[in-house]
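FW: tagging you since you asked about this chain on Friday. Here's the raw sequence from the shared folder, copied in full. Didn't touch anything.
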Amino acid sequence: MTVTKSLVLFAVAALFEIGGAWLVWQGVREHRGWIWVGAGALALGAYGFVATLQPDANFGRILAAYGGVFVAGSLLWGMVMDGFRPDRWDIAGALVCLIGVGLIMYSPR
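HL: got it, structure written out here
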């Protein structure tokens, strides 16, 4: 159950961080306005809170592993929200990152 909880928290954190950054991007770069930027800032704050709910107590480990989730999640977000099409190197890199997440978070200690 702990691994499942951790994976769900990583997914929720990714939604908040990547979504928040995308909202800020839309507000500033795409000139959608400060409401988008504010919503993005709130989502980024929510990401910071969700990260604290991980079962592992080590900040560095959580954030390092989340980096891999962020890489893969960002490519997926770009596909869904912006029509981005990753090439084979994007996909290979994301898979390497996700393997790293598994090693960092779920290897026996």
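FW: Helices lie at 2-28, 34-51, 59-82, 88-106.
HL: agreed, and The chain has a mean pLDDT of 96.
FW: great, closing this out.
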